[in-house]
Amino acid sequence: MNDGMKDADPILLRASGLCKSFGGVRAVQDISLSVPAGAVFAVIGPNGAGKSTLLNLLSGIFRPDAGSVTFDGADLTRVRAHRRARHGIARTFQKIRLFPHLSALDNVVAGFHIHAMIPAWQYVVHGAAFHAHHGRCREEAARLLRFMGLETRANVAAGSLSYGERRMLEIARALATAPRLLMVDEPAAGLNAREVETLVERLQMLRRDGLTILVVEHNMDLVMTIADRVLVIDYGQHLFEGAPAEVQRHPGVIAAYLGEERPQ
After folding, report:
1. What angle do CA 127, 133, 135 make, to 5 degrees?
2. 182 CB-contact burial (10 Å; exposed 0-12 / middle 13-18 / buried 19+)
3. Which pLDDT value is given to residue 123?
4. What single-letter DSSP state applies at residue 254?
5. Pair 185, 198 in one domain
6. 228 neighbors 2 (Cβ within 8 angstroms)
7. Are residues 81 and 158 in the same domain?
């Protein structure tokens, strides 16, 4: 567990009283959370607990029926997902979303264009500003691929990569948007033990570099290793929030999610 989070750290992301229903099903009910800048904040819970719905509310994929979302003091409750990215929020998805026919490098390059400040017409005629910007993007994309251990796969089509490589590539593309907050949805799903170890190392490096991370994850070893604070939800409702060690000991969490008490 990391112990670098301090009480004085400013709150970067705050959600208050979030609610979301689909038909007669209440997927999220009155959820509030505060994510300090520079922290790793994890959301866990059983299958169907509402974790992905909560992440979709925080990232702007869904709009809440009630409640609010603020980021660095700005109200983003009704701001769409692509505009939240310009505020500095990036996310990955449980079901990987890449451009399968583009190379790994070009998938990452695509992430840079959200902050592009060149005239739109240059994308049509490929003027000098476009070429300079594109060259810088490719250099930075290559750096991100190296960081994620994909430097030898730069020219391989994303659809031809292994599942674990595609997971890493999606994180690299999210990092290309220069986020202040990275939300990752089940990043360890489908990874083997070695890939999970690499993932943990990279997330820890990003945190040391000052990036704030919100992770939704089933892999409890990963959560207990990297998280500063853990929110547990069940049936769309707040069950418990605390440090990883507190979560492991909480009887309600053990009953709802962990299934059995772990040795201390």
Report:
1. 100
2. buried
3. 38
4. I
5. yes
6. yes
7. no
Radius of gyration of the chain (CA): 19
Tokens of 222: 């990963």
With respect to residue 96, please indicate whether it lies within any of the assigned structural domains: no
Length reported for the chain: 264
Give the tokens for residue 56: 């979709």
Report the number of distinct structural domains present in the chain: 2
Query: What pLDDT is attached to residue 264?
Result: 40
Give dist(CA 208, CA 78) in Å, integer: 31
Asked if residue 94 is part of any domain, the answer here is no
Spell out the residues 6+ positions from residue 239 whose beta carbon is closer than 8 angstroms to its own.
Answer: 45, 232, 233, 252, 253, 256
CA nearest 71: which of 242, 214, 223, 230? 214
Entry pTM? 0.85
**Intervals of the chain under pLDDT 50:** 1, 3-7, 115-131, 260-264
Dist CA 46 CA 189 (whole Å): 15
* Domain span at 260: 1-88+179-264
Same domain, 55 and 110: no
Instruction: Identify which of 221, 224, 228, 217 has the alpha carbon closest to the alpha carbon of residue 167.
Output: 217
Which of 145, 178, 211 is the last residue before a domain boundary?
Answer: 178
- pLDDT for res 41: 98
167 and 183 assigned to the same domain? no
What pLDDT is recorded for position 8?
53
Q: What is the pLDDT of residue 163?
A: 93
